[in-house]
Amino acid sequence: MPNAPDAALAPIDRLIEIMAQLRAPQTGCPWDLEQDFKSIAAYTVEEAYEVADAIERAQYDELKDELGDLLLQVVFHAQMAQELGLFGFDEVAAAINDKMIRRHPHVFGDAVQRDSAAQTVEWEAQKARERAASRKGDGVLADIPLALPAVKRAQKLQARAARVGFDWPDAEQVFDKITEEIAEVKQAIRLNDPEEIAEEIGDLMFVCTNLGRKLNVNVEAATRSANAKFERRFGYIERTLAAKGRRPEDASLEEMEALWGEAKQIDKAAKRQPGQ
């Protein structure tokens, strides 16, 4: 049985050694040894969401732990890659070091310091040059990851197409398209065609996402915020009814809508408070 890695090691070096021992063929952990890139990918995505959740709730003690869990995922993937002779953790770190220096010429090079908006434009231009160099012959949308959340991927697809001129001039045209898509949803409902309804709902969601992009809104974050708001307001309904010894299923829709209105007013009042 191997000993735990020396606590005197630098924390990142100790973590890398711990992972190496977990993956050691004869003495490692059976579960860790069974994993591969595909099986671990789902955990990597989950840990990234847990980081975002801790930030959303301003739980910074949790954030420290969640960042550690996410770092473990990077180390896990790097260890498996090293076993296959592909690359190791040092190469992962070296690649991101080089990329950050390359993409910040205003900090590490001779480029003139500009505002953040101009730097964002240059960042995207540099990414486009890197894509062109590494993916010759591929399309504009070729390397947008399929595993991204649907809303986030929609915005990336739209933004990438917009860079080559495939875009509405302003948000007004998007409103017109939303009206058109709503009409198509209604038509699908009249036809009672489940597949068509699903397709048209998808089209409507895609266009609404495009509206957010045109208005510089992160629709993924805005949707998370809307989810949290719904949970908060519905929780008010549940708590108010519980104080009367009742449950939502015991209440009428009209009663719950009245309580929803109260919760909405509470939210508005909270926003008016100093510091909100």
Automatic annotation (TrEMBL):
Against CDD domains, the record matches this protein to:
NTP-PPase_MazG_Cterm, NTP-PPase_MazG_Nterm
Could you say which EC number(s) this protein's record lists? 3.6.1.8
Q: Which GO terms describe its biological process?
A: dATP catabolic process; dGTP catabolic process; dTTP catabolic process; dUTP catabolic process; response to stress; TTP catabolic process; UTP catabolic process
Annotated NTP pyrophosphohydrolase MazG-like domain ranges read 35-108, 174-233
Q: Which GO terms describe its molecular function?
A: ATP diphosphatase activity
Q: Which InterPro entries match?
A: MazG-like_dom, NTP-PPase_MazG-like_C, NTP-PPase_MazG-like_N, NTP_PyrPHydrolase_MazG
User: Which top EC class applies here?
Assistant: hydrolase
Q: Which domain of life is it from?
A: Bacteria
Query: Pfam families of this UniProt entry?
Result: MazG
Q: Which reaction does it catalyse?
A: ATP + H2O = AMP + diphosphate + H(+)
What PANTHER family does the entry give? NUCLEOSIDE TRIPHOSPHATE PYROPHOSPHOHYDROLASE
Entry similarity comment? Belongs to the nucleoside triphosphate pyrophosphohydrolase family.
Q: What name does this protein carry? A: Nucleoside triphosphate pyrophosphohydrolase
- Name its species: Maricaulis salignorans
